[in-house]
Design brief:
CATH topology of one domain in chain B: Cytochrome Bc1 Complex, Chain D, domain 2
Number of strands of chain B: 0
Largest sheet of chain B: none
CATH superfamily of one domain in chain B: Cytochrome c-like domain
Largest sheet of chain A: 2 strands, antiparallel
CATH class of one domain in chain B: Mainly Alpha
CATH architecture of one domain in chain B: Orthogonal Bundle
Strand order of the largest sheet of chain A: 1-2
Radius of gyration of chain A: 36 Å
Oligomer: heterodimer
Largest interface: A-B, 79 and 66 residues
Helix content of chain A: 40-55%
Distance between the termini of chain A: 107 Å
Strand content of chain B: under 5%
Number of helices of chain A: 17
Number of helices of chain B: 10
Order of helices and strands of chain A: HHHHHHHHHHHEEHHHHHH
Helix content of chain B: 40-55%
Distance between the termini of chain B: 75 Å
């Protein structure tokens, strides 16, 4: 006999499980459908985090406000905001506060309203960030320290062994009765002293001349900026073009540091740092991205609780520290290089898209400039539409290329090494 | 024994010097400061003494001034009447004078991060809701609001900003803004010619 439950009990269980499953299934579908409608129609003005106001108010907990617990009221409002508002002081107050009229969506049905509210309630619940996204800060220094300690220990061992060796030799000499003249200690040995002096002058001379050449050069210069602005987050992860903020590099001598209003183009809406990786400064201290954005708001005179009252004319400049400095006697023009020369920003500034705090990668020395001018080939083709018509004046070079006397033209050939190009 | 201590000390000093690779926070010194640092006011040289006089670089341009090489000033105000009046404005630049390749470059740099390289409202900053931007950018092709928007209104919105979008007047000149508007209009034209009945509901959703 197989023991089995009474038919009635089994049936109830099955029915119950189907019922529970269908409830879970239906509500999940509601949220998904609500999300689709919300992202398509509402998210332009209402922040999907449901707790920060955007163009329109934050929608989290909306059923506790006004008459919105009744979805029919919500439906009337969404279908025809202007009509609803005419006899409703609450929504008139919203318009006065947000200064922007709600767009009507006449195609929304009562079921859609239920779905959207289900999604809003679901999204308003704070979710824990996914685990496993906290990389350890890099510790570049530790290797050098380990190597230093190891070499120190080895050197001490070598010295002790030398001492032991000489002592043993002395003992064996004594035992065998050989008498050698007393050895001159090595620090009094003239050959040793001469060799040490030579080595000292070579090493010291190397470091001295290196330091002298480095005067006025700022390789690896990485100043502390007034706001911890991560180029890695902006230009790397979020793929903002360099020219979005430094657009004047295309038209002028300077790759200008953006004014506060360019930051505020996006940060008017982005008030917190939650989705990106954790940030660390060079010392390994964790940086609170949201607090850094608050510093921007302070400079801009922007109150995130009243975004519509912001007056851009009252903004104060942020005093960023300029990293790449050339001496006054050198002329350098950005537009000439990136627009005419088609040089990528990264060729001189390094992988800025991977830097949290930006540092100077290139030497920016004269040798460095000249070397690039010697090696860089000019896109000399002027006949097709993408070419630079200016190069048509170099008749001799074009003839030489045609006659296979030279295969390419470098910047050097068209005057890239002339003193007056950069010093005048 | 003293000898060993001296040598150990030297080696330790060397090790400390070699392992010293801290972050460089100072800009260092120059050979001839009077040749390295400009006496004239250079862009981004120190502005300390300007600050005392209340001069800063975030000021708005004086009303009525026109930047060198820019087109004549835009007269409509940034309010609801200006917005309504902008619909009648037409692009003052003829179609031949607009370089579509340049317009595309400007669009991809300034607009594409939100509105998407395909104008589908899904640029890297929105990324189907996974990006950092908290408001869904308009789908410039299928959203009826932007698809039916006149070029004058579009120019007005780019100049002054609209809803969550900021003003692009400081990043793009008058001509560049008209170029971007012409680029968007030309893309909308080809899209509506290709498929007359665009499916707004599905196109607005990110493809996942």
């Amino acid at each position: 006999m197989i023991p089995c439950k009474p038919i009635g009990q089994r049936l109830t269980l099955t029915l119950l499980s189907v019922f529970v499953f269908s409830i879970v299934y239906v509500s999940a579908q509601d949220v998904a459908a609500g999300k689709a409608i919300f992202m398509g129609k509402c998210a332009s003005c209402h922040n999907p985090n449901m707790k920060t106001a955007g163009t329109g108010p934050a929608l989290g907990g909306l059923e506790e406000r006004h008459k919105w617990a009744d979805h029919n009221e919500l439906l009337k409002w969404i279908n025809n905001p202007a009509g609803y508002m005419a006899s409703d002081p609450y929504t008139q107050g919203l318009l006065a506060q947000y200064k922007s009229m709600m767009t009507g969506f006449s195609d929304i049905t009562l079921k859609d309203v239920g779905d959207i509210v289900a999604y809003i309630n679901d999204a308003a619940v704070v979710k824990a960030p996914p685990p496993g996204s906290t990389p350890e800060p890099e510790k570049g220094n530790s290797n050098a320290i380990i190597f230093g300690v190891i070499s120190l220990i080895l050197a001490i061992i070598a010295l002790i062994l030398m001492q032991v060796n000489s002592n043993l030799k002395k003992m064996s000499d004594d035992a065998e009765g050989i008498s050698r003249p007393e050895q001159v200690p090595f620090y009094k040995n003239k050959i040793y002293i001469a060799m040490m002096a030579l080595i000292f002058f070579a090493v010291a001379g190397y470091y001295f001349s290196k330091a002298a050449i480095g005067l006025g050069r700022q390789t690896n210069y990485e100043p502390i900026q007034p706001i911890y602005y991560s180029h890695k987050v902006h230009a790397g992860i979020n793929q903002i073009s360099c020219l979005y903020c430094h657009g004047s590099a295309w038209d002028s001598k300077h790759a200008a540091i953006p004014a506060v209003n360019i930051c505020m183009n996006c940060h008017k809406s982005i008030g917190e740092y939650v989705k990106g990786p954790k940030l660390y400064d060079e010392g390994g201290n964790e940086i609170n991205g949201t607090a850094e954005i608050a510093k921007l708001y302070k400079a801009a005179g922007f109150d995130p609780t009243k975004p519509n009252d912001w007056d851009p004319t009252k903004a104060k400049p942020i005093e960023w520290v300029k990293i790449h400095n050339l001496p006054d006697h050198v002329y350098f023009n950005h537009s000439q290089h990136i627009r005419a020369g088609k040089v990528q920003c990264q060729s001189c500034h390094g992988e800025v898209t991977a830097m949290d705090e930006v540092k100077q990668v290139s030497e920016l020395s004269m040798g460095w400039c000249i070397n690039c001018h010697r090696e860089t080939k000019v896109d000399f083709n002027y006949s097709d539409s993408s070419g630079n018509k200016f190069y048509s004046i170099y008749e001799k070079f074009h003839n030489d290329i045609k006659n296979h006397k030279m295969d390419s033209v470098t910047v050097k050939d068209i005057g890239g090494l002339e003193c007056q190009k950069c010093h005048y | 024994m003293k000898k060993i201590w001296t040598i150990t000390g030297c080696v330790a000093l060397m090790a400390v010097l070699i392992s010293c690779n801290k972050t460089r926070r100072s800009e260092g010194r120059a050979y001839m400061p009077d040749m390295a640092y400009s006496r004239a006011y250079e862009t981004y040289s120190s502005t300390e003494n300007l600050k005392e006089k209340g001069i800063n670089y975030t000021s708005m341009p004086v009303a009525g001034t026109i930047a060198r090489g820019d087109a004549a000033g835009y007269t409509l105000k940034n309010d609801s009447t200006g917005y309504a009046a902008s619909a009648a404005n037409k692009n003052p630049f003829s179609a031949d004078s607009i370089d579509m390749k340049e317009a595309e470059r400007l669009y991809l740099i300034n607009c594409g991060i939100c509105h998407g390289a395909k104008l589908d409202g899904n640029g890297p900053l929105w990324n189907g809701g996974d990006g950092p931007y908290p408001a869904a950018p308009r789908n410039l092709i299928t959203d009826p609001i932007t698809a039916n928007m006149s070029e004058g209104t579009m120019f007005h919105s780019v100049t002054y900003g609209r809803n969550s979008m900021g003003s692009y007047a400081s990043q793009l000149t008058t001509k560049q803004r008209w170029e971007v508007v012409a680029y968007i209009k030309s893309k909308q034209g080809t899209a509506s010619a290709a498929k007359p009945a665009a499916d707004t509901a599905t196109a607005a959703m990110p493809k996942k």
